[in-house]
Automatic annotation (TrEMBL):
<feature type="domain" description="Aminotransferase class I/classII large">
    <location>
        <begin position="29"/>
        <end position="380"/>
    </location>
</feature>
<dbReference type="GO" id="GO:0008483">
    <property type="term" value="F:transaminase activity"/>
</dbReference>
<dbReference type="InterPro" id="IPR015424">
    <property type="entry name" value="PyrdxlP-dep_Trfase"/>
</dbReference>
<keyword id="KW-0663">Pyridoxal phosphate</keyword>
<dbReference type="InterPro" id="IPR051798">
    <property type="entry name" value="Class-II_PLP-Dep_Aminotrans"/>
</dbReference>
<dbReference type="Pfam" id="PF00155">
    <property type="entry name" value="Aminotran_1_2"/>
</dbReference>
<protein>
    <recommendedName>
        <fullName>cysteine-S-conjugate beta-lyase</fullName>
        <ecNumber>4.4.1.13</ecNumber>
    </recommendedName>
</protein>
<dbReference type="InterPro" id="IPR015421">
    <property type="entry name" value="PyrdxlP-dep_Trfase_major"/>
</dbReference>
<dbReference type="InterPro" id="IPR015422">
    <property type="entry name" value="PyrdxlP-dep_Trfase_small"/>
</dbReference>
<keyword id="KW-0808">Transferase</keyword>
<comment type="similarity">
    <text>Belongs to the class-II pyridoxal-phosphate-dependent aminotransferase family. MalY/PatB cystathionine beta-lyase subfamily.</text>
</comment>
<keyword id="KW-0032">Aminotransferase</keyword>
<dbReference type="InterPro" id="IPR027619">
    <property type="entry name" value="C-S_lyase_PatB-like"/>
</dbReference>
<keyword id="KW-0456">Lyase</keyword>
<dbReference type="InterPro" id="IPR004839">
    <property type="entry name" value="Aminotransferase_I/II_large"/>
</dbReference>
Length: 390
């Protein structure tokens, strides 16, 4: 079946957080997609609604089997269903883990620039962020791990936890298997628990697939909690459903206690049927979606090359978020983003949200029908020209 990614959805006044904007504005911010999810998933949810009785739910064995089958077929990665626990979202699982696996005043390690909500999970819990900066190559527009710095920060006795983003948001970088093994080995050597957020793992648009960390050799997964979800993959963020995959049985019991203690372990009425339908029947939709979003990425890369050569697209191969180096135009992306919005109504995320060297970058969500992407590029072109004239 051919799915439709071209129709523009009218999401204003639909309680969409992203679309709570002024008339004429085009928000390309929060990471949800402006596409309808797969009809197979909607059918499963409608059936559930039609039952009419909405009592307490639990994650069924079929749910965990669907997760395991998905990772086996989609990523050639084996996970036992016993390793899995249901959680009401990746962020709720991370926040519960921060509380449970570290103490007030401890350091939680991040690799900056990185997804902004991690900071809330850490700081709101009274922990400190300790950041290892990814090194930016200004010629290639690529990032690299600063291995000495990373190990130094892992070795700090106050560092008890690390949150890894695999693949990385906002750069779209897909960590190689060797890099993951190295990161996990270093963390293990220094007794640091690693939470690997793999919410974008199904969205590798091009090139080699990502490596699900739970599938790595057991010697290095002893300290590992992997978090996966249908949320980004199938545009089901509001479903509040995620899975923790923890190969080490002792750590798994502790994770289980964490998500139960912080009430992040019970599914809502649509989470289980929606996620099962997604994993069982959403594959074709996802594969077509990835081609479409890759087409958007290519379109934008060409557009920038031809019209805005001062802007450089960081060459990530995953996620529907693009990370653009705007440092030749402004060293303050918060101001730049505000100008772009006021000048043209295009709303994008300033890189400052993601810390690190984000002041020289903007992030744009490109999971939109092509016509809206074209519209966004015209607005960006006008805004950058006007900004330079200031
Ligand atoms: C890296 C990353 N983790 C987690 C989330 C949110 O996860 P959830 O909605 O399951 O809490 C996002 C959403 O943008 C994300 O990009």
């Amino acid at each position: 079946m051919q799915y439709d990614f071209d129709t523009i959805l009218d999401r204003k006044h639909t309680n969409s957080e992203k679309w709570a904007v002024r008339d004429g504005e085009l928000p390309m911010t929060t990471a949800d997609m402006d596409f309808k999810t797969a009809p197979e998933i909607m059918d499963a949810m409608k059936q559930k609604i039609d039952q009419g009785a909405f009592g307490y739910e639990y994650p069924t064995p079929e749910y965990f089997q669907a997760v395991a089958a998905w990772y086996a077929t989609e990523h050639h990665a084996a996970a036992e269903t016993d390793w899995m626990r249901f959680a009401t979202g990746v962020i709720p699982a991370i926040t519960a883990s921060v509380h449970h696996f570290s103490h007030e005043g401890d350091n939680v390690l991040l690799m900056e620039p990185v997804y902004n909500t991690f900071y809330n999970s850490i700081i709101n819990s009274g922990r400190h962020v300790i950041a290892s900066q990814q090194l930016y190559d200004h010629d290639q527009h690529t990032y690299h791990v600063d291995w000495y710095d990373l190990e130094d920060k892992l070795a700090n006795p106050l560092t008890t936890l690390m949150i890894l983003c695999n693949p990385h948001n906002p750069t779209g970088y897909v960590w190689t298997k060797d890099e993951l093994i190295h990161i996990l080995s270093l963390a293990k050597r220094h007794g640091v628990v690693v939470i690997s957020d793999e919410i974008h793992g199904d969205l590798v648009l091009d090139g080699p697939d990502y490596t699900p960390t739970f599938s790595l050799p057991t010697e290095i997964t002893a300290n590992l909690i992997t978090l996966v979800s249908t949320s980004k993959t199938f545009n089901l963020a509001a479903l509040h459903s995620a899975t923790g995959i923890v190969p080490n049985p002792i750590l798994r019991e502790r994770f289980d206690r964490a998500i139960n203690k912080y009430e992040a372990a019970e599914p809502n009425l649509l989470a289980i049927p929606g996620a099962i339908a997604a994993y069982r029947h959403g594959g074709d939709w996802l594969h077509q979606l990835k081609k479409y979003v890759l087409g958007n990425r290519h379109y934008i890369a060409d557009f920038l090359r031809q019209n805005l050569p001062d802007l450089h697209l960081v060459p990530g191969t995953a996620t529907y978020l693009i990370w653009i180096d705007t440092s030749a135009v402004s060293d303050d992306s918060a101001k730049l983003a505000q100008f772009i919005r006021e000048d043209t109504g295009l709303i994008i995320n300033p890189g400052t949200y993601y810390h690190g060297n984000g002041a020289g970058f903007i992030r744009i969500n490109i999971a939109y029908p092509r016509k809206q992407v074209e519209d966004a590029m015209q607005r960006l072109l006008k805004a950058i020209k006007d900004f330079k004239k200031k």
